[in-house]
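The methods section describes the discrete structure representation at length, but only in general terms. The central task, working out the structure tokens from the amino acid sequence alone, is never made concrete. Nothing conveys this as quickly as seeing an actual entry. For illustration, here is how one protein appears when written out as sequence plus structure tokens:
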Amino acid sequence: MATTMIGCGSKEHAGATATGTVTVDGQPLDSGLVQLYPIADGRPAFANVQSDGSFAVATTAGISGVSPGTYKVAVQYESEEGELPFAEKYTTASESGIQVTVDESGDNVFEIELSGPEK
């Protein structure tokens, strides 16, 4: 009989850490979701944006950190008014124009600077 242990307390680590801040026209974004999509093989990674604009990345399936490599970045934001505080292009990784490279040698800190909505 085969037995599988689930939730045994140890958490797999993806190899590197990535943190940073998201700003819109120089001001911290007060909430949202940073999404990193690998350009090559790898798992996407995500981070909730805190009220001060800071974030810390984790991959899916409870794996902490992020695999080294280059990622396209998107930022999601929800508001009751349905308006984005930044240009809509940033909501799609293929259109945002933002890429980050995660280095395996240590902590990676990214400043994601967004422009306000197009008028």
Q: What stands out?
A: Residues 27 and 64 are 28 Å apart (CA to CA). The longest helix spans residues 93-96. The beta strands are 17-24, 27-28, 32-38, 45-49, 54-56, 58-59, 69-76, 99-102, 107-114.
